[in-house]
C-alpha cells in the first residue's frame, strides 16, 4: 500500500493539555485554527514525518503508524449514506472539512502488519515521546515522531509491501472524508488546476495491525494529529 510521511498540524508539545480540551473551538473553522497557530497553541511541522501512535488502557495496548494514504482507501465504505438524514449529515460534515481545510483526525484503518514492522515501531518508541496524554476515560495516548531518514525509509519500505488497508472507523466519518476530497477535486477540475497530486487526494490515516484491533480499533483524539488538505 502507499502510505507516506507528511507535515502535520498538531498542538505545541508544551501546550497539548491546554489545546486538547479546546479542540471543538480550534477546529470550528479555518479562522479559529489560524488564530491558534498564530498564538503558538497549534503548530505546523516544517518537514514530513511518520508518527507512531500508542493507545493503552482497557482492554490492552495497541500501536499504529500514522501516515497519509490515497483517498481511494476509503472507497466502498458507504454504509453511512443509507437514508436521507444520514446522507444530509455526511454532506454537511464533508462541507465543514472542506471549509476547515484540515482533516481533524486520522481515519482508522486496519492492515496486515509484519513482525519486522513491529520491531521498527518498537525501536521508535524507545525514544522520547511527543505526547503522553490520559483522557477522562483512563486511556493513555502516546505519540512519537519519526523523521530520521533511515527510520522513515524503513517504515516506508514495510508499508509498501503491505496489502491495502480496510477502514475500521465510523462509516459516517469515512464517508465525510471521501465527500470532502470529492468536493475539493471538483472545485480544482472546474478551475482547470487539478493535477491529482493535491493534498486532498490523501487522507491522514492511523494504521493498526488487523490482528490487534479485531474487537474494535481505537481512534486518535481529534486535533492531536491533523493534515492540511487545501490552501488556507
Spell out the key features of this protein.
34% helix; 232 residues; 7 helices; alpha+beta
Write the layout of secondary structure elements.
Layout: E1 9-11, H1 16-19, H2 23-26, H3 30-39, E2 42-44, E3 50-57, E4 60-70, H4 84-100, E5 102-103, E6 107-111, H5 115-124, E7 131-134, E8 140-146, H6 149-161, E9 166-167, H7 171-191, E10 202-209, E11 227-228
Parallel strand pairs: 6-10
Antiparallel strand pairs: 1-2, 3-4, 3-8, 4-10, 5-11, 6-9, 7-8
Q: Major sheet: order of its strands?
A: 7-8-3-4-10-6-9
* Share of residues in helices: 25-40%
N-to-C SSE string, H for helix and E for strand:
EHHHEEEHEEHEEHEHEE
| Class by alpha and beta content | alpha+beta
Intertermini distance: 29 Å
Radius of gyration: 17 Å
Please, how many helices? 7
- Low-confidence segments, given as residue ranges, are none
Protein architecture, described:
- This protein is an alpha+beta fold.
- The chain has one domain (9-228).
- Helices cover 34% and strands 24% of the residues.
- It contains 7 helices and 11 strands.
- The chain has helices at residues 16-19, 23-26, 30-39, 84-100, 115-124, 149-161, 171-191, and strands at 9-11, 42-44, 50-57, 60-70, 102-103, 107-111, 131-134, 140-146, 166-167, 202-209, 227-228.
- The strands form 3 sheets. Strands 7-8-3-4-10-6-9 form a 7-stranded mixed beta sheet.
- The longest helix is centred in the last third of the chain and has 21 residues, at 171-191.
- The model has no long low-confidence stretch (mean pLDDT 91).
Amino acid at each position: 500500500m502507499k502510505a507516506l510521511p507528511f507535515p502535520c498540524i498538531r498542538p505545541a508539545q508544551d501546550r497539548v493539555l491546554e489545546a486538547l480540551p479546546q479542540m471543538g473551538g480550534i477546529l470550528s473553522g479555518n479562522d479559529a485554527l489560524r488564530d491558534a497557530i498564530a498564538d503558538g497553541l497549534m503548530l505546523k511541522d516544517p518537514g514530513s514525518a511518520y508518527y507512531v501512535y500508542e493507545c493503552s488502557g482497557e482492554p490492552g495496548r495497541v500501536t499504529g503508524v500514522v501516515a497519509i494514504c490515497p483517498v481511494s482507501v476509503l472507497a466502498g465504505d458507504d454504509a453511512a449514506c443509507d437514508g436521507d438524514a444520514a446522507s444530509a449529515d455526511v454532506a454537511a460534515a464533508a462541507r465543514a472539512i472542506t471549509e476547515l481545510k484540515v482533516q481533524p483526525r486520522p481515519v482508522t484503518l486496519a492492515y496486515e502488519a509484519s513482525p519486522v514492522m513491529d520491531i521498527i515501531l518498537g525501536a521508535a518508541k524507545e525514544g522520547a515521546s511527543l505526547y503522553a496524554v490520559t483522557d477522562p476515560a483512563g486511556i493513555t495516548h502516546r505519540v512519537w515522531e519519526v523523521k530520521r531518514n533511515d527510520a522513515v525509509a524503513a517504515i516506508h519500505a514495510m508499508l509498501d509491501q503491505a496489502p491495502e488497508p480496510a477502514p475500521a472507523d465510523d462509516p459516517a466519518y469515512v464517508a465525510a472524508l471521501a465527500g470532502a476530497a470529492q468536493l475539493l477535486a471538483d472545485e480544482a477540475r472546474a478551475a482547470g488546476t487539478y493535477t491529482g497530486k493535491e493534498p486532498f487526494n490523501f487522507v491522514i490515516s492511523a494504521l493498526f495491525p488487523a490482528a490487534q484491533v479485531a474487537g474494535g480499533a481505537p481512534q486518535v483524539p481529534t486535533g492531536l494529529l491533523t493534515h492540511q488538505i487545501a490552501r488556507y
